[in-house]
Amino acid sequence: MPRDLIAILRGVRPDEVVDVASAIHAAGISRIEVPLNSPKPFDSIERLAVAFGDRALIGAGTVLSVGDVEKVREVGGKMIVSPDCNPDVIDATKAAGLASFPGVLTPSECFTALRHGADGLKIFPASVLGVSGLGALRAVLPAATKIYAVGGASKEDFADWIGAGVTGFGIGNALYKPGDAADVVSTKATEIVSIFDGLRGCKA
After folding, report:
1. Which end of the chain is more exposed for a tag (fewer CB within 10 A), N or C?
2. DSSP character for 143?
3. Across residues 60-64, what is the average pLDDT?
4. What residues contact 106, with CB distance under 8 A and at least 6 apart?
């Protein structure tokens, strides 16, 4: 089973995306998103889809419209991640056969996302909800719900979030910043995977 870690490559360029993603994948992270506010994001997603095929779950982040869902599907992406809970986007994602990870913060948003078929919930920004808030939210959500903390969770406090019931994490700047070389990203990815595995006892 893949680790419940999603690499967020915000700001990555098409000419570097395969090298950066290869370093991340080699470290053991097989879910990779290119946010749509990155340079030529659909070009990057297409390159990743071709390079990784079925070895990784490739997709887009910061997806805000139904039209963008279709564009991601057309270039071979298989995962849609959003900062908000838009039922139309979730419905379009599932109709296209893609994995849906909408952004949520409140109980209403969480249950709306689940009713529309979301595969997992992206708690965003996690720093606003906090560990105690996540614990309260987890208590009322279905036990099988996949919950990912994004925006405020870091390797230093993975243990706290996991203790509160989080499934995994979306990792952005702590993993990749625009301009980072593949070897730099490899070092960071390896450390993040090691810490995560130590807490979850998971294997690739």
Report:
1. N
2. T
3. 98
4. none
Euclidean distance between CA atoms 58 and 21, whole angstroms: 10
Q: What are phi and psi for residue 32, nearest 5 degrees? A: -135, 125
Q: Report the C-alpha gap between 165 and 162 in whole angstroms.
A: 5
Please tell me the distance from the alpha carbon of residue 138 to that of residue 159, in angstroms, as a whole number. 16
Residue 192 and residue 174 in contact, taking contact as beta carbons nearer than 8 Å: yes
The model's pLDDT over 72-131, given as tens digits with 9 standing for 90+, comes to: 999 999 999 999 999 999 999 999 999 999 999 999 999 999 999 999 999 999 999 999
Nearest CA to 154 out of 187, 188, 201, 184 is that of: 188
User: Which candidate in 33, 46, 155, 188 is catalytic?
Assistant: 33
> Which residue among 16, 78, 122, 155 is the active-site one?
122
**122 tagged catalytic:** yes
Q: Is the pLDDT of residue 204 over 70?
A: no
Kindly give, in sequence order, each residue whose CB lies less than 8 Å from that of residue 7, ignoring residues fewer than 6 positions away. Answer: 21, 24, 29, 31, 32, 33, 171, 175, 176, 189
Model confidence band, residue 2 (pLDDT cutoffs 50, 70, 90): confident
Written as one letter, the residue type at 100 is: S
